[in-house]
Design brief:
Layout: E1 6-8, E2 11-13, E3 17-19, H1 34-42, E4 48-54, H2 72-87, E5 92-96, H3 105-108, E6 113-114, E7 123-126, E8 129-132, E9 137-138, H4 144-160, E10 165-169, H5 175-180, H6 195-198, H7 200-213, E11 218-222, H8 236-246, E12 252-256, H9 261-270, E13 274-278, H10 290-298, E14 303-306, H11 308-312, H12 316-322
Parallel strand pairs: 3-4, 3-14, 4-5, 5-10, 6-9, 10-11, 11-12, 12-13, 13-14
Antiparallel strand pairs: 1-2, 7-8
Helix pairs in contact: 1-2, 4-7, 8-9
Length: about 350
């Protein structure tokens, strides 16, 4: 089933493999480079590519050497990438990633802000190394509409840059999940407290993106119960059940296997459009396998996303098709910059 086609919104995917978003920290002046275009074009046989996280505004940048999508020159730079992917027959969504409290003034030139003034207990990458995360400034109620709008503005820019759609990053401890959480979000206004309050920001951000570019071009990623960047979520099944019921019928939801199978299956059954499952989870050292992907397709998932497997295997679809062994990327090259461990992997040679 992984190699069968699938209709996603207005796109026909030749297979059900999705290249998952992965930070690579190789941007120059917050823009992709010629090597970025090569990197994604090499992997264009994926049914769908979702890019690394792109910050939708300057203050929302989470890490150094990460690209954005809030300036005209960034749009032009990303058009080179999307043109290269489309020339190779691929389809590509831009992931929109607002870091919220996961940032540092030395990264973005702005003091980070989030749902509440609750600091991370872990360090963040800044200034050439790890540094203590500052206590974020809590967004005033009057500011939240503007933060929602950053997703709509970036979605429009994504379409201008030639992307086929956008994925809002609602996972892995970044801003949208910070609002969902019970420890980073201590608000007492309409964006906190109850489940209805905690899902409100996510729903409004999705609705804004839909209003900007259309539902068939919008997806969102979740990591239910995931704990990256100190996030804690109470009552995960009820929280995410309410969330998926409140969302408009967008192109897809993209869910990491960060909770039990029963909860994941419940989300699958409750969600009316495409369901992308990432079987590798969040912090597991083992990438999801083809066998896991096939199992989830048999259990109702529509598409399967793979992250680390795509780093060293630009021809992952063909390797799965022929049962070929997979190469492994050196973890030291994941974020180090340069072309080594980035675009120097080749197709399998017998």
């Amino acid at each position: 089933m992984l190699l069968s086609s699938y209709r996603l919104g207005n796109l026909t995917l030749p297979n059900r493999l999705v290249m998952a978003p992965m930070t690579r920290s190789r941007a120059v002046d917050d823009k992709p480079t010629a090597s970025t275009a090569t990197y994604y074009a090499q992997r264009a046989t994926a049914g769908l590519i979702v890019t690394e996280g792109l910050h939708p505004s300057a203050p929302s940048q989470s890490g150094p050497f990460t690209p954005g999508l809030h300036r005209d020159d960034q749009v032009e730079a990303w058009r080179t990438v999307t043109d290269a992917v489309h020339a190779n027959g691929g389809r590509i969504f831009a992931q929109l990633m607002h870091g919220g409290r996961v940032s540092h003034p030395e990264i973005a030139g702005h003091h980070p802000a989030g749902p509440s003034a609750v600091a991370l207990t872990t360090e963040v990458f800044a200034g050439g190394g790890r540094k203590p995360a500052p206590t974020p400034r809590a967004f005033a109620s009057s500011e939240i509409a503007a933060e929602v709008q950053t997703f709509a503005d970036a979605a429009r820019r994504a379409v201008d840059a030639g992307f086929d759609g956008v994925e809002l990053h609602g996972a892995n401890g970044y801003l949208i999940q910070q609002f969902l959480s019970s420890n980073a979000n201590l608000r007492t206004d309409g964006y906190g407290g109850s489940i209805t309050g905690r899902i409100r920001f996510a729903v409004e951000a999705v609705e804004a993106a839909v209003d900007a570019i259309g539902a068939e071009r919008v997806g969102i990623r979740f990591s239910p119960g995931g704990t990256v960047w100190d996030v804690v979520e109470d009552d995960v099944p009820a929280l995410y059940s309410a969330l998926v019921k409140a969302l408009p019928d967008i192109a897809y939801i993209h869910v990491l296997a960060t909770t039990d199978d029963e909860t994941l299956m419940g989300l699958r059954k409750a969600w009316p459009t495409a369901f992308i499952l990432n079987p590798g989870g969040q912090i597991s050292p083992v990438e999801g396998t083809r066998e896991q992907g096939e199992r989830w397709l048999a259990n109702g998932a529509d598409l399967i996303s793979y992250g680390r497997a795509y780093l060293a295997n630009p021809d992952l679809v063909e390797r799965f098709r022929l049962g070929l062994p997979l190469a492994t990327a050196d973890a030291e090259t994941w974020f180090q910059g340069g072309d080594k461990g980035y675009i120097d992997f080749s197709s399998y040679r017998h």
